[in-house]
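Running this now, will post back.
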Amino acid sequence: MQEETGLSLLELIITSSLVLLCTAYTATQLSGRPDIMALAKHVERFLQTNWVRAISDEEDISISLSPNMITRFGPHGEQEQLTFPRRIRLLSSHSKINFYASGVASPASFDLALGQTRCKFAIALRGRIRHVCT
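Update: finished.
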């Protein structure tokens, strides 16, 4: 009787297929993470800039939240939009954030979502804006 050693061709094909599937799945899950992290920093700067603008111009600013964009409405009707890529969604129970000339903000929280990656934003009453991505 002859003893078998090593892997058969079929076992080798199945093993390499499983490794390739795991690698492909991991690559697709991780590929969007840098995109959403960069966008989260951009959103934080956008909000921070508008909070400072409300104080320096001594005029209230309203920020509208929708699933695919954030829109700033200035006191004189001017608008500025920050649109998200199709795969990224904004999830919020709030539809509007107000930055007041006194430096106060309407407290709010919202998430940016891309697959399993979420960036949570919190805006405090005194205008502090924070985000954490997980």
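The mean pLDDT is 87. More later if anyone needs it.
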